[in-house]
């Protein structure tokens, strides 16, 4: 055969490479620059393409797919506006360490730089919001680049990778090269196995602790389900208390007595005080975000700190670490368990008993308490009832951003990893609904619920059309307080109750809106009806919007105002007057 | 709690793939994260493996310097990051082209100083010189300072290149 006959077009090559990377689903939206790829997709049936209604949603859907499966999520968008629309999603995936490969169309190589139609400097624009990006200039580099991109997206600290594909590259011909396995990248080789000396030192510190606490995060989820199993094993071996970040929820079973709940700005009293008073802090895969630390100078001032992280740049970024351990969470936990078993250390039972007694006292404050009355539904109550009805079913939760997100983190219980998807780092309103679509694609029979605010849901509401097309029975559970509640709460607490532009005027009728898209709309504002509506929502095997009219003025507590220390928590509405926010705190977000 | 740490100057040597965009990645990292660059040089140094070396001089507290290095190291096309300042003895050099215009006594004085600084005359006209001066940055600074009074017109500086002392590769 002559080489021309055996050779394949760039677009066909790309599809082959994706199949070799075990990709099953691509979330995308077509346009001129990627038409050759859409043509290749048309001619095959291994890859499923999900047509979204906005490119931002394609990336969030890929994130939901990735977070709920552990696989790499794949996105395909056109040049120019397709690529720029994807930028929010890419930034979101970067902040939350979600593996995504995003293929962007580009004008042909000879037109790059000419302000051609739908040209954008995609690699330039996405450089700071991706883990890495590529511009493929020759078809001969295409397959290798795709394989490398998947390796980079999923290895070490995962993240989004963009491959920019000029149209001529997609149409030129070349032979296909299958990926070489195992890949040995020439420069990117993250350290997975920990230094054994550090493990010994960690066990010394952990065993001698009198007031220890585990503080674990999204890194445990990134590491895979095995890491969560090992975490539970190790935490139970020690008998020590554990708290999770927002991103780490589900890595340790919420129903376990050793679990103190989430920590941080809207974390529990017991978790935050344990962080403040502990003498040994064991961080596994959490990055000392400012939502966690509050006032840095007063963050966990008495503790020796151990930090396990696969990314050395997370260590000593915000907080001084006494014992850094670079490695993958599962590998490190495996070693910690092995050495702990071998050494059978005797822990200070008397001190630990006193520590737990103190923690129980804090727990006794019951910081998440709220008062439900007969008239209006409290958002917390709505979530407690929701959890009651879904807990025995295979369910996945996504959220939008705001008060409802924090209440979901506080009131739903996460027993296993990969079942909770939320936008933590970027805090992207509009994340939850498309993410839920991605989850539903990966888990067709599961109950997938987006806990939403009425403001956030408007940001990607067009995706109702997508769920209708693919018959995705995603449930949108709107806690409708008619306000951008989180904004209103800050205005109440920090800006003298001047509710500037935070009232949601002219909201749609969500029931009719659902109807218009072929979904089902339900509504209630009556506490007595709530259970019935939730049960109905679960029963309907179609997309459903549930418009839950909740108390408009409810605030999310506990709250550590920005810039305050962990002991300066506001536990309820009556706390606020006594503790005005410092000027230093006012400038923080 | 971390003691108040003072900022110091570090020379960092980075071995990277010589590919389009690599400089933008490195510079974007510095500007995006608010680190400062005092000097930056870059050129291809290994033809066979297509590698470039970037030498950056920056200042920061020990925690910031550690962060800069970790951030650089996680860029995918970065092969190696070395902090020459922390690693002990190293040599640094910079080259400057210094243009001076003047006549009479000033011109003679400029030439005399150039000799002291072992600066070479690489262009001469009736009323001007271009000197090439090489050395550590403070020597280059001093030379330029002296020329200011003698009709300094223009300066071009390469920025610092550096390597460790001894036979080991960096
Ligand atoms: C309105 C709002 C309020 C919020 N309030 C809170 C709050 O009260 N409490 C709270 O916790 N968060 C809160 N957040 C979220 C917060 O902004 C951060 O996103 C979150 O705290 C970060 O979680 P994390 O530290 O687990 O890190 P992630 O962002 O999940 O990062 C994971 C870390 O693990 C490392 N890692 C990755 N893979 C591995 C591996 N295989 N092995 C080991 N390490 C690995 C990474 O390098 C990184 O350092 C809020 C967000 C919003 C939008
Ligand atoms: C894209 C985007 N724009 C603005 C914000 C700032 N913001 C954070 S929460 C919030 C209000 C969310 O309102 P809603 O969805 O109704 O949730 P609630 O707080 O009322 O539960 C806003 C505007 C954001 N996080 N994301
Ligand atoms: Mg709202």
Number of strands of chain B: 9
**How much β-strand is present in the residues of chain B?**
35-45%
Overall radius of gyration of chain B: 19 Å
Helicity range of chain B: 25-40%
Uncertain runs of chain B: none
User: Which secondary-structure class do the elements of chain A indicate?
Assistant: alpha/beta
Rounded mean pLDDT score of chain A: 96
List the helices and strands and how they pair.
The complex is a heterodimer of chains A (589) and B (170).
Chain A: H1 3-6, E1 8-9, H2 10-20, E2 25-28, H3 35-42, E3 48-51, H4 55-69, E4 73-77, H5 81-85, H6 87-95, E5 100-106, H7 122-126, E6 132-135, H8 142-154, E7 160-166, H9 167-171, E8 173-174, H10 196-208, E9 212-216, H11 218-223, H12 225-238, E10 242-244, E11 259-262, H13 269-277, E12 280-284, H14 290-293, E13 304-309, E14 323-326, H15 329-343, H16 349-363, H17 379-390, E15 395-399, H18 403-411, E16 420-421, H19 432-442, E17 447-453, H20 464-469, E18 475-480, H21 485-494, H22 510-516, E19 520-524, H23 530-539, E20 544-549, H24 583-586
Parallel strand pairs in A: 2-3, 2-4, 4-5, 5-7, 6-7, 9-10, 9-12, 10-11, 12-13, 13-14, 15-16, 15-17, 17-18, 18-20, 19-20
Antiparallel strand pairs in A: 1-8
Chain B: E1 8-17, H1 22-32, E2 39-46, E3 51-60, H2 62-73, E4 78-83, E5 90-101, H3 105-116, E6 120-125, E7 128-135, H4 137-148, E8 152-157, E9 161-164
Antiparallel strand pairs in B: 1-3, 1-4, 2-3, 5-7, 5-8, 5-9, 6-7
The structure holds flavin-adenine dinucleotide, thiamine diphosphate (TPP) and magnesium ion.
